[in-house]
Amino acid sequence: MLRFCLQTSCFQSKLLFQHNLHKQITKIKCIGVCQNKVFRQFSTDSKEEEQLEHIYAGPLTPQIKAVKIFSLTSSVAGLMAQPIIVKQAATIGSTSLLVIMCSMVGFFTFITPLLLHFVTKKYVTDIHYDPSTGTYKATTINFFLAEKELEFKSEDVTVPDIPGMFTTMHAKGKPLFIEARHFSNPLYYAKIMGYDKPMDFKLGEMEDEERK
Hints:
- This is Transmembrane protein 70.
- Keywords: Membrane, Transmembrane, Transmembrane helix.
- Belongs to the TMEM70 family.
- The strands form two sheets. A four-stranded antiparallel β-sheet has the order 1-2-3-4, with helices on one face.
- The chain is an alpha+beta fold.
- The protein is 59% helix and 15% strand.
- It contains five helices and seven strands; from the N terminus they run αβααββββββαα.
């Protein structure tokens, strides 16, 4: 009887040990698979970042960010102070003074940030280049100081005959402003603008024939 009890307890202990061992092996496998996925994802992102070359940096980026921060801060302060200004102007009882003060506050609160954004939204702060795909990634700043990225290739770029205000080129229809002297290599600028392509000297003759 004692031998039977000992065999039974040993068998149960063996089953319990095998069950726990199986659970531990399963956990280790799951952890290993997750670690491999994370490592592969991290290595893929690292490889993509290493492939990109930083070929352009806008020199006015810190100044533009500082001005936009000041403008947005002034707008928020103007919105908060507008009820107080209107209340104080209403106590005076002058309608013309009330209109003038509201116009001034509204101009500095709404119009100035919009005008500033209209001018600076075309300014390219950085350009990265992927030599494996021939893709450029241009970075601009939106109204709320968040970075926007635009991917394009050299064939997506059009250079206007008469450049607009703060416009050097159009990439996928979006106007952008860049400066040639701030590229790490002038060849990048020439390739983006299409200056490396052969010139067609027969355009004028073709236009004359079409008119005839």
